[in-house]
Amino acid sequence: MKNNKINGGSSYDDADDVFEKESDDGSVNIKPYEVDCLPNDYNISVLMSLIKQKHLKIPSFQRNYVWKKDMASKFIESIIIGLPIPQIFLFEQARNDLLVIDGQQRLVSIYLFKNKRFPKNDKGRSIIRECLSRGEEIPDSDLSGEHFEEFSLKLQKIADENNPLNKTNYDTLPTEGVFDFKASFDFNRTIRTITIKQNAPDDNCSSMFEIFSRLNSGGITLKPQEIRMSIFYSPFYNHILELNSDAKWRRFLGKKEPDLHMKDVEVIVRAFAMLEMYSEYKSPMRVFLNRYSEKAKKYDEKKIGELDQLFSKFWECCSDLPDNAFKNDQGKFVISHFDAIFVAVCTQMSDGDNSKKIMFQDMLNIKADARFIEATQSKTTEKNNVMARIEKAKEHIVLQ
Q1: What residues make up the domain containing 177?
Q2: Choosing a second label site near 102 at 20 to 30 A (CA), which of 36, 245, 370, 374?
Q3: Is 257 in the same domain as 144?
Q4: Does residue 241 register a pLDDT over 80?
Q5: Distance of alpha carbon 39 from its chain centroid, rounded?
């Protein structure tokens, strides 16, 4: 696809960072909160039962399952022979509704070993994430398909002697003789599991957000939207993921593939949050988006459908604009431009009228407005600047 260049522009194959940098000004006073931390020593059979019964979900803290077969094999061997392994943290959202805070890679490795299958490629890893994050088991048709292979343990020799567990899978673990490895794996070896339940405050999602971000011991700093997706996952977010694949949206973003850390998802959420709650906005932006995500968990199919329709109609209004209409001179997508224009356009839409468009001259006029420029150059997430951008967008953008 040819890229229309007005202010520089970027192609689909540019670097992953397509967004203009933006600091989230403002701080949050973390109020004391009360949590219960319940330790349990679950055996493998119990943990797998929680997954099968959909009581335990494994959200995508990382984009996909990332362990290689030799690393997963060493971990499984540690369980079998009784060596201690790191504890797992769970968060109790409601009765029989547990979410993994820390330990995704370990639990997935156990699940894969029990099913005797291991991902061969990124597609297989994506299938794992998509199924287990919804609390669903991976279908047998996928496990037996081209994206998975047999999971036999891949272990090195011990003191120049073959490891007796090497090349064994779950079904072929030794069960005869002095030691029954299979029974030991299923029932005798336990994993310390800490279940966290928040008691107070019951109306403050920021404390829940803090728990998720601080208990990540994997050495990878999670982005706010990755944590947000785990805490507030709902039918609303399921639709947002679908909208993120919309070809019209990705044309203006200038990037074919979804962002690994869900920045593009966050931009869509932010646009809807501004549309519905900008009059209630106060910084920092990350807490505002948490509040909106919590609210959106209660949206029914009718409400979600209305938002889907708005998103589609917005891009119809943009159909005459060049690819980089929302970008700066360096070809970076400017989020603070986009969400203000999104609010201005969506508040003008009328039911059944899909013929009106955004005029490119209006886009040039708003980018030349001194107050709009000031509100997008520094402290962009301060309330005064957020309000100023939206009011200026409403003043300049008139559908015709």
Answers
A1: 34-200
A2: 245
A3: no
A4: yes
A5: 27
